[in-house]
Amino acid sequence: MSDKRTLIAVIGDEDTITGMLLAGVGQVAPSSQERNFMIYQEGKTTREEISKSFDNFTQEREDIAIVLINQHVAEKIRGQVDSFTAAFPAVLEIPSKEHPYDPEKDSVLKRVRRLFGE
Fold first, then answer.
1. What are the structural domains, with CATH classification, of the chain?
2. What is its subcellular localisation (predicted)?
3. CA angle centred on 6, ends 47 and 4, rounded to 5°
């Protein structure tokens, strides 16, 4: 199972996606034109589009090992992110240029705190 999971998927704003693509994270499947990234645009991207991409990366695709999502984008689908408990793919919230990281909102850190009884 782990042999299939080789990609990092990203859901984020243009600056984050651009940086990740420059780092070599981007992949477009030749046959289906399916991408491993989704660009969030403030005021243009709907909650349903974010939710659909998150479901695609976490439930439908078997080649994704890690999903990176800007924390401010994760806030739009917070219930969905918090309820995702599978080991693979790992879902990690990251900061963006315009929105600082808030550890109080991070779903992984919330689970760790509960585990340690904090």
1. 7-115 (3.40.50.10580)
2. Vacuole membrane
3. 100
